[in-house]
């Protein structure tokens, strides 16, 4: 398993997919270290340790390269969420980038509205996102939401729901600034520390739960996902900010 993981790390490294290759290097090194502990043959141990040292050196080089890209504003990480995959709650995607310096958040998503099925109310997705923000460790003071009006008879419920979220956030010292646009199409989330996250499906990448009492109804980490792509950038000069 260690050899296969390290082989994959090298392939990703050669393809310049450095973030993914770093994860594979780290996992492969851990597996190889376990093999060394279980090996009694000193000659084999020596060979394994030599390879581990080489892989660790390369992993450190990649870490420095990624850090430099972040500092230069050239960082780009892509996550592919497969159909029916689990383990992709909002905390898993966003918390790494919600550092203590974040005080302002921009959310652009045309579909923050009331869905016909209560179990797929997209307002709840936005509420869960806001709950994550409130839990920290960032000290967000303002969340800017740009979305579109619900079509048909759902507009009043949409506005009422957003106003309720706004009032609830106020009790936590967070201001929700709501704006509507009839031409918005792109979906992206930005933090004022320079991070930008673009999700193909916006915040609505979770599948409808099987029932109100099924696993995954409350815990989004256990909820199957729709296939989508997440692109994460870091730039010191995000024009929209």
UniProtKB/TrEMBL annotation:
Against InterPro entries, the record matches this protein to:
MIT_dom, MIT_dom_sf, MIT_domain_contain_protein1, MITD1_C, MITD1_C_sf, MITD1_N
Q: Which gene encodes it?
A: Mitd1
| Source species | Tricholaema leucomelas (pied barbet)
* Record-linked Pfam families: MIT, MIT_C
UniProt-listed PANTHER family: MIT DOMAIN-CONTAINING PROTEIN 1 (PTHR21222)
Residue ranges of domain MIT in the record:
1-71
For this entry, the protein name equals MITD1 protein
């Amino acid at each position: 398993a260690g050899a296969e993981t390290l082989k994959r790390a090298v392939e990703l490294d050669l393809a310049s997919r450095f973030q993914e290759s770093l994860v594979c290097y780290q996992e492969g090194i851990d597996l190889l270290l376990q093999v060394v502990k279980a090996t009694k043959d000193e000659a084999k141990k020596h060979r394994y340790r030599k390879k581990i040292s080489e892989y660790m050196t390369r992993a450190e080089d990649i870490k420095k390269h990624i850090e430099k890209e972040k500092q230069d504003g050239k960082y780009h990480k892509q996550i592919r969420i497969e159909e029916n995959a689990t383990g992709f709650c909002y905390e898993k995607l966003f918390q790494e980038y919600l550092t203590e310096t974040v005080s302002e958040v921009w959310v652009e998503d045309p579909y923050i509205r009331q869905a016909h099925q209560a179990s797929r109310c997209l307002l709840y997705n936005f509420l869960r996102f806001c709950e994550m923000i409130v839990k920290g460790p960032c000290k967000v003071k303002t969340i800017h939401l740009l979305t579109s009006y619900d079509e048909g008879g759902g507009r009043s419920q949409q506005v009422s729901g957003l106003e309720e979220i706004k009032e609830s956030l106020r009790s936590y010292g967070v201001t929700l600034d709501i704006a509507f646009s009839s031409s918005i199409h792109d979906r992206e989330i930005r933090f004022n520390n320079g991070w930008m996250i673009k999700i193909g499906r916006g915040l609505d990448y979770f599948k409808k739960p099987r029932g109100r009492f099924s696993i995954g109804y409350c815990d989004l980490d256990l909820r199957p996902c729709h296939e989508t792509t997440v692109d994460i950038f870091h730039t010191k000069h995000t024009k929209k900010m």
